[in-house]
Please model this.
Amino acid sequence: MAFYLAFKEVWRNRGRFFLFSLVIALITTLVLFIAALGEGLALANKEYLSKIDAQLIAFQANVKLSANASQISESKVNSIARVDGVNSVGTLGLSSATLIFDNGRPDLTVSLIGLEASQVIIDGRIASKENIRVGDMIRLKTIQDTKEKFFNLQVVGITESQQYQFSPSIFMPRLTWDKVRSQQTSRSLVDLISNIVVIRVDNPAEADQVAQRIQEQVSDVEVVGIQKAIEAIPGYSAQQSTLNTQQFFTLLIGMLVIGGFFQIQMLQKIPLIGVLKAIGTPNLTVGAAVVLQIILVTVFGVFLGALVTGLLALALPTGIPIVFNGVSIIIAVGTLLAIGPLGGLVSVRLAISVEPLAALGLSS
Model:
């Protein structure tokens, strides 16, 4: 009975309810795009660090976990490797450069990552976009001693997408990285340093204890987990907080809009509810009909919004950092489906509190 009442009213007033479903669809599209934008920006910032096969990262102490400011000498790297519980260590040099093209294409900012044992391997994102293949020569520009320096390097491999701080990555041997990277003065081989040290431990469950042990035995280093290192990336936490706040207020506005619409609807049909109650319809049936009506309209609106979002995503240029992550999308859709009934709770309360005689104007 409750479903019949809910569906019958929606069908008889399908134009009005369809327009409101479009409003819910627009809210859904906005929420999903904010969620996808947050995921895309986060991924562009942290992608390389999140894929490191290690549990800990060591920074120079007192640099607030800034990878670019951190400087760790070879002697400290060797000391870290000797700490009990450390399985292996790897050094990373982090810098940036400009990838130059000779055919008129715009220059591209890239992250340079120097590894202990590596060759010149480029990010698959660059290879796909710029049609670079194994064996091709690439030209990099950096600033050294306030002058532009150019380096020609041969690509020997292509890896999956591994962005760092919004830029696709180019991997190279640490000695080559030290020669190519932007710097104020040329460094000798004796002065070779690393920005950070990645650490794999024997037992991942004891990573915190190993981190404490390293800090006690090796001076002037700060050791943290991968996630904390990601959160320390400049702008990462503030960026995610801003997007999460936007998503929260969008959901809140959506709930208020849905609640307001159904409350207006309920005020308009109080006489009808009075008739239903006068002929013996119980409050449970009336309340259930209102809830089902809200669910029907909300589900249709969310489905329509998700469909429009999917179609728009297919048409977006590849350079826009929009990533539709399955988990975040499920959470967003689930929340959107929940705000409909939540926003309509006032309408349900209003429906079950209607007095038949008062609604029909027959009370004394």
Summary: The first helix runs from residue 2 to 12. The chain has a mean pLDDT of 82.
